[in-house]
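We modelled the chain as a single entity of 132 amino acids. Its sequence is:
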Amino acid sequence: MNKQKPIILNQAELDWEGWDGPGVAVEGPLRWKILISGERGPSSRLTTGIAEMIPEALLPLHHHEPEETYYIISGSGHVTVDDSAASLGPGASVFIPSNAKHSLRCTGTENLVFLFTFAADRFDEIVYHFDA
């Protein structure tokens, strides 16, 4: 039996990442830190990170193959997943099924901070398809 080693880190020691370059479909700054993923160590079937959006920032309608969850740490937002929509605040959680079309907007006056998790080995393998 092959025993995996733990991944232990402090997110404060990691650099923020984000999308850049031409054709990026995100309105307003969205940044993240990958916490647990195959990029960080021997994680399998689990990728977790923390993300932050400024007020009025929008992660527009998109989909991807792996399931995803959001857990809201602070701020407020609005999520749409297929035909469902809801306002979000601290303590709210969202499950996004595989290939479900979804979007997220920061609706408050403070940044929206949330934990996200994918059912995937590595974050760099997740292919985002933005739906115009």
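As a brief sanity check on the tokenised model: The mean pLDDT is 89. The longest strand covers residues 30-36.
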